[in-house]
Amino acid sequence: MPDSKTYTGGCHCGQVRFECTSDLSMVTACNCSICTKKGLHFTFLDPKSFQLRAGEENLKEYLFNKHAIHHQLCVDCGVDVFARGKKPDGSDVVALNVSCIDGIELSKLNMTPVDGRSM
């Protein structure tokens, strides 16, 4: 199993900034409508491993379908930085848009296919 690292990142304009700890062992390649249209790739974090460092006042929430996932978008640049939701067991989870991590190269990550279109 890969070692966890601390990452920083944020939206395109820099108003929203975060820090997180993850091993990036599971990054989604989901085929649901929002992930497909926005090119989202999420890793899932315990909320204790995610800290919003700046820009809480710059976030707008987007809900769709079952209103179960609370997508957090920067109001200035529109980037979907992260989402909050619940795991199947009911515990809280943060879904971090891996593309928002500083210096990340998606082509070097192993993607896990997820059939979100059928959920």
What can you tell me about this protein's structure?
The protein is 5% helix and 43% strand. The chain is globular, with a radius of gyration of 13 Å. The mean pLDDT is 94. It has one helix at residues 33-38; strands at residues 5-10, 17-22, 27-30, 42-45, 50-54, 59-62, 70-74, 80-86, 92-97, 111-114. The longest helix is centred in the first third of the chain and has 6 residues, at 33-38. It is built from one helix and ten strands, in the order βββαβββββββ. The strands form three sheets. Strands 4-9-8-7-6 form a five-stranded antiparallel β-sheet, with no helix packed on it. A three-stranded antiparallel β-sheet has the order 1-2-5, with no helix packed on it. A hairpin with a 7-residue loop joins β6 and β7. It starts with a strand and ends in a 5-residue tail after the last strand. By secondary structure, the chain is mostly beta strands. Belongs to the Gfa family. It holds the Pfam family GFA. This is CENP-V/GFA domain-containing protein.
